[in-house]
């Protein structure tokens, strides 16, 4: 690919049209004169991305291990939460490290295979998070608002999770299909590798896909979650007198799940809004410090991958107790008294930090 071809590619397939949830800061940013090349700014960016990666990997791994370790946390809702944690781990490991390197060096140094694989994996992971949040909201709406006592079985939960990943892979597949990897010579001694979109016919197809993903990933999920949780909240408020303890527990759990949705939306909306502005008006690309602004919004979006475990520990006693048990190997306080028969039966099983008991989430 020569320089003229690259310039044409930049005009026809600007990187930030790479649909709204592609985590990687795209190529061609090297052409912009921006403040992200200042040493002080780069130090801040390195610390920001490194912090998100550290908290994301640690927190989400802790969530997965806690549900695996303690049987009473193995509920359908918690299995969906584990699915969220797996998707966030995928972003933390496959998105952020590569994004940071690309941001600092402005050169795709990861080869052709990863050029096609990484954007696809990143898009799929964010779709999984969005769909899973919707499923949790609809499942709670079904059981609380419509009083359906029959809970979703674990087998059905597994089927739903598999379908979620399959649908997410389908929605993200254009990121791998309509892509091009190439290189050109900046000078006789320096070659730049690029990984860019290549939509058929014109870049309008890319804009259509980008707008479609905005609707699928943000607009529709926010509508579904808003309606579901508003109806759940109103239902619980009307039935606080009868079955007070059970309704209090449900209300706390619903509050936690609703907070997760709000945090997810607040984290991603600035990124999506900025992306939409680019699609509508290309003059946004000429704004001062465009790359820095885009990177800040990207960091905000990525914060959603590490904040959920913090919410679990802060807003849910069961998770908080489980986290303390895992981290400190410490028998949690405030556990319910069991019958002497059960205590004798489970006495040996409760060693080595496995004495955690909790009510279901």
From TrEMBL:
GO cellular component: plasma membrane
PROSITE patterns in the record: G_PROTEIN_RECEP_F1_1 (PS00237), G_PROTEIN_RECEP_F1_2 (PS50262)
Location of the G-protein coupled receptors family 1 profile domain: 59-312
Main localisation: membrane
Domain of life: Eukaryota
Subcellular location: Cell membrane
Membrane-related topology note: Multi-pass membrane protein
Entry's family note: Belongs to the G-protein coupled receptor 1 family.
InterPro entries per UniProt: GPCR_Rhodpsn (IPR000276), GPCR_Rhodpsn_7TM (IPR017452), NPY2_rcpt (IPR001358), NPY_rcpt (IPR000611)
Compositionally biased region (Basic and acidic residues): 341-355
The protein's name in its UniProt record: Neuropeptide Y receptor type 2
Transmembrane segments: 39-68, 80-105, 111-136, 157-178, 208-230, 257-278, 290-314
Keywords: Cell membrane, Disulfide bond, G-protein coupled receptor, Glycoprotein, Lipoprotein, Membrane, Palmitate, Receptor, Transducer, Transmembrane, Transmembrane helix
GO molecular function, one term: neuropeptide Y receptor activity
């Amino acid at each position: 690919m020569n320089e003229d071809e690259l310039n044409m590619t930049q005009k026809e397939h600007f990187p930030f049209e790479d649909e709204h949830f592609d985590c990687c800061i795209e190529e061609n940013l090297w052409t912009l004169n921006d403040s992200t090349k200042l040493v002080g700014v780069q130090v801040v960016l390195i610390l920001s991305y490194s912090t998100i990666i550290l908290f994301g990997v640690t927190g989400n791994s802790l969530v997965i291990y806690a549900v695996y370790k303690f049987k009473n946390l193995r509920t359908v809702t918690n299995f969906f939460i584990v699915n969220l944690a797996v998707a966030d781990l995928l972003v933390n490991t496959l998105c952020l490290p590569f994004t940071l390197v690309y941001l600092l060096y402005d050169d795709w140094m990861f080869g052709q295979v990863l050029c096609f694989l990484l954007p696809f994996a990143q898009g799929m992971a964010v779709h999984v998070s969005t769909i899973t949040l919707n499923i949790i909201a609809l499942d709670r709406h079904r059981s609380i608002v419509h009083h359906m006592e029959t809970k979703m079985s674990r087998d059905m939960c597994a089927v739903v999770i598999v379908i979620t990943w399959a649908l997410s892979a389908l929605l993200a597949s254009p990121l791998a299909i309509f892509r091009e990897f190439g290189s050109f010579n900046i000078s006789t001694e320096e070659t730049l590798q690029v990984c860019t979109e290549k939509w058929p016919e014109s870049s309008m197809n890319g804009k259509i896909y980008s707008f479609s993903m905005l609707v699928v990933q943000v607009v529709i999920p926010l509508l579904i979650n808003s309606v579901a949780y508003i109806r759940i909240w109103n239902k619980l408020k009307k039935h606080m007198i009868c079955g007070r303890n059970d309704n209090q527990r449900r209300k706390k759990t619903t509050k936690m799940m609703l907070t997760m949705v709000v945090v997810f939306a607040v984290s991603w909306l600035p990124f999506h809004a900025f992306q939409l502005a680019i699609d509508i008006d290309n003059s946004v690309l000429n704004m001062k410090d465009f790359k820095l602004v885009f990177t800040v919004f990207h960091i905000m979006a990525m914060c959603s991958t590490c904040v959920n475990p913090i919410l679990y520990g802060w807003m849910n006693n069961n998770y908080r107790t489980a986290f303390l048990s895992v981290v400190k190997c410490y028998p949690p306080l405030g556990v319910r008294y069991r019958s002497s028969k059960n205590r004798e039966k489970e006495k040996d099983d409760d060693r080595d930090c496995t004495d955690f008991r909790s009510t279901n989430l």
